[in-house]
# Entry
Amino acid sequence: MAGQIRMTPEQLRNDAKRYGTSSAQIEAILTDLSNLQDKFRSEWEGKAFEQFDVQFEQLRPKVQQFSKLLEEIQGQLQTTANAVEQHDLELSRNFGLQ
# Structure
């Protein structure tokens, strides 16, 4: 059947947290690499480094955007878990369950 969610809202919330954790890890990696890039700037001169630095700076916003997307997915999954939980509660009331 299409349109089924075969996990509990709590399982979905836990999986959503993994997206948030991954986002934070990506940000930490980017910070670490940015610090390394700053070190290179003080130690490496020439055209080769300039090209390398341009590539790094072009990549940085893409990595930041990916990290932000993971945060957004986390929020969407949490919202979905809440909606599934609320919908199930509303359906249970049809059977006189509180």
Observations:
- Residues 13-75 form a domain with the Helix Hairpins fold (CATH 1.10.287.1060).
